[in-house]
Every structure is written in C-alpha cells, then in structure tokens.
Design goal:
single chain, alpha/beta, two-stranded parallel sheet, 40% helix, disordered N terminus, binds nicotinamide-adenine-dinucleotide, binds uridine-5'-diphosphate-4-deoxy-4-fluoro-alpha-D-galactose, galactose metabolism, EC 5.1.3.-, NAD
Length: 357
C-alpha cells in the first residue's frame, strides 16, 4: 500500500550505447526528468569523457543518479554483472554499429555486433524480469520510399547490411513480443539526427572522415577538411540536391522520454513503431546555406555525382508520434545549425585534444 507523503523510488533505466551521440543527449534528459540511469558502453565509437560531460551539465545532484559500466553487449559476463547489481524498469537500446559503408565492407562485424548484442540483451532482460524496451531503429528501414512522407505501416526493406540489422531487429522485437505478451517494446525510427546540446559540451564526434552530411560540413567549417562533396545535383528536387528530414538531437532525446512514458502507462502497447522526424524535408544545399548563416563561415562545396544507394527525398509522417506519444519536434534547421556550430566551434576536434603540429 502506498503511504502518503512517502517519495516513490525513481524509475531505473539501462541505456546501452549511452556514451554515444544520441545516448549522451538522452541520458541528460533522463536525469533531468528524475530517472536513475545506468549506461553500458564498450566505447567502440565513443569516449568516457562524453559521459563525464553529461555529469558536468547535469550537476552534482542529478549526477548521483548516473552510473557508467564499461562493457560489451556481446559479453554475457558484462550483462550478468550489470543486471545482477541493479533492477531495471526499462532499457533504452542504442548500442550498435551504424556506418552504412563499413557495413557493406564488413557485414559479419555488423551482424555480430548488432544482432548478437541485442539477442544477449533480450536474454538478460528476460532472466531478470525487465520486459520494457525502447529500440533505436532508423528511417533506413523505409529503403528508397515510393511515397513520402514515410508512414509507419509502409512495407519495409533494407538496402545494405546495416539496414538489414535494423530490419531484422525490428522483426525479432515483434516475434519476442508476440511470444510473450508481457513485453512492451517501442521501435523508434529516427530520421537524420543533427545538432547538439545548447551548452556546446556534448555533440557528435565521429571517428575518421565523417560519412554523414552535418559532421562533414562541421569539419569543413573548422578547417579540418577542405571542401564538401555534394552528392547529387540532378535529383528531381527544387535545387537538384537530395532531401532529408533533419531532426535536432534534443528533440530526439525528448522523443525517448515520451516513448518511455508510453511504455510505463500502456499495458497493451505490444511492439509498436514510431517515426521521430520533423515531417519536413530540407535539401543538401539548403542545409549548407543554413549552416553558413548560423556559423558565419563559407562552406566551399563541389557538385559531385550521386552517392550509390541514396534516395531522392525522405521525410517522416509525424502524426502517429504526435497522436500517441504526445511528442512533436520543436526545433527547426536554424536552431539545429546554431547548436551544431556551437559544439563545433568550442570542440573543433570533438572530445580529443587538437593534434600536435
Ligand atoms: P554512436 O556510435 O554515437 O553510439 C552508439 C554507441 O554504442 C557507441 O558509444 C558505441 O561505443 C556503443 N556500442 C556499439 N556496440 C556496442 C556493444 N556491442 N556493446 C556496448 N556498446 C556498444 O551512434 P548514435 O548516432 O548515437 O546512434 C545510436 C543508435 O541509433 C544506433 O543504434 C544507430 O544505429 C541508431 N541510429 C542512428 C542514426 C544517426 O544518424 N545517428 C540514425 C538512425 C538510427
Ligand atoms: N551528403 C553529401 N555529402 C556528404 C555526406 C552526405 O552530399 O559528405 C548527402 C547525401 O548524399 C544525402 C544527404 O547528404 O543526400 C544526407 O546524407 P547522410 O549521410 O547525412 O544521411 P542519410 O540520409 O544518407 O543516412 C543517415 C544515416 C543512416 C540512417 C539514415 C536515416 O547514415 O544510417 O540517416 O536515419 F539510416
């Protein structure tokens, strides 16, 4: 029986991949919303400094609710250790490899990491009776959509091994939930996350040459790369460049809080997918112009042939997330570029010190 005046224990969330780009921003919002957070990350594509900076932004009091475990989802001993120490109310599962080109070159690495890691996670969640999960899926599961905006009930397809891991993992989630209705799973299909926390202390820090548009633009702006290659200028769009749905990473982070609340309050959620996008499309050249405006920097670019496998235009239908999660993106491209530049100009080499000249 609940005793009046007695504080309820905060809910405890395991965040896999919580040291990464989207993970750090989400962990910060979780702390601010009063959750207790444990992060497991193998630091394959991140650094512990990012978690330290989350602590710094959150402040000493909220940081007491954050624990970091260096561990790998493929290693069952790591999972046993973390699940036996803490009782979790839900898991947000970000951990995975995400570079499309690398997945084509090293498919086994992607299948091994993304699939085995997730199967192990289900095993330990089941063993320890935690059956609520928010899973990071991607707009990649829409392939080259025949119609836009992309609606959640479109037929899905994968274009490369990375996309296939997301597609398989969505299907595995459906099967797990069908077999045991105690599971509640939300699949979040992110469109193109960019931007950074307004403090400029955390942001995206890709290793090597960036594959994605905004990290590339950012490195041109700070002088790490000489020129942006614009892939495709003959698409049937207003300026010939391809169109995507860019979404501020803080909006995305808030989308995870909305999804968690939905899981906790909806017994019959089953396994349900939601798009997280803004619902509007922006071309590559429009993003270049928006970034130039926000940064005051000229971004030299070269018009190049299309990148194989790229779609002309992809953007989200946002109705379902708005109606059922009560969530909608707040920020536009101006704020996305402003915050991306704030992060870039304060951390031109990301979390690393500048190289010795
Ligand atoms: P990220 O690489 O910054 O973060 C992923 C984190 O997972 C990293 O810190 C990495 O070290 C960790 N990790 C990877 N494999 C692990 C393992 N086996 N055990 C423990 N930790 C492991 O990537 P992100 O941009 O934050 O993306 C998070 C999730 O969202 C990924 O699943 C990604 O596929 C998905 N997603 C990202 C985008 C995007 O454009 N950023 C778009 C759609 C979907
Ligand atoms: N682009 C350039 N130059 C670059 C990089 C990208 O012109 O240097 C163009 C691309 O050709 C594309 C657009 O910018 O037209 C966006 O490209 P990104 O690589 O930033 O993003 P994608 O939409 O291709 O894919 C990203 C992730 C996928 C994910 C998808 C949807 O890489 O993993 O968003 O979430 F599935």
């Amino acid at each position: 029986m609940a005793v009046e005046g007695l504080q309820k224990e905060p809910q405890s969330i395991l965040v896999t991949g919580g040291a990464g780009f989207i993970g750090t921003h989400t962990v910060l919002q979780l702390l601010k919303e009063g959750f207790r957070v444990s992060v497991i990350d193998n630091l394959d594509n991140s650094v512990e400094e990012a978690v330290d900076r989350v602590r710094e932004i959150a402040g000493p009091e909220l940081s007491r609710n954050l624990t970091f475990f260096l561990g790998d989802l493929r290693n069952k001993e790591d999972l046993e250790k973390i699940f036996s120490q803490t009782r979790f109310d839900a898991v947000i599962h970000f951990a995975g490899l995400k570079a499309v080109g690398e997945s084509v070159a090293k498919p086994m690495l992607y299948y091994n990491n993304n699939l085995i890691g997730t199967l192990n996670l289900y095993e330990f969640m089941t063993k320890y009776g935690c059956k609520k999960m928010v899973f990071s899926s991607s707009a990649t599961v829409y392939g080259q959509p025949e119609k836009i905006p992309c609606v959640e009930d479109f037929q899905l397809k994968a274009m490369n091994p990375y996309g296939r891991t997301k597609l398989f993992l969505e299907e595995i989630a459906q099967d797990v939930q069908k077999a045991d209705q105690e599971w509640r799973i939300i699949l979040l299909r992110y469109f193109n996350p960019i931007g950074a926390h307004e403090s400029g202390r955390i942001g995206e820090d890709p290793k090597g040459i960036p594959n994605n548009l905004m990290p590339y633009i950012q490195q041109v702006a700070v002088g790490r790369l000489p020129v942006l290659n614009v892939y495709g200028h003959d698409y049937p769009t207003k300026d010939g460049s391809a169109i995507r749905d860019y979404i501020h990473v803080m909006d995305l982070a808030d989308g995870h809080i909305a999804a968690l609340r939905k899981l906790f309050t909806t017994e019959d959620i089953g396994c349900t997918a939601y798009n997280l996008g803004t619902g509007s499309g922006t071309s590559v050249l429009e993003m270049v112009a928006a970034f130039e405006k926000a940064s005051g920097k000229k971004i030299p670019f070269k018009l190049c042939p299309r990148r194989p496998g790229d779609a002309t235009a992809v953007y989200a239908s946002t109705e379902k997330a708005h109606k059922e999660l009560g969530w909608r993106a707040k920020y536009g491209t101006e704020e996305m570029c402003r915050d991306q530049w704030n992060w870039a100009s304060n951390n031109p080499w990301g979390y690393r010190p500048p190289p010795q000249s």
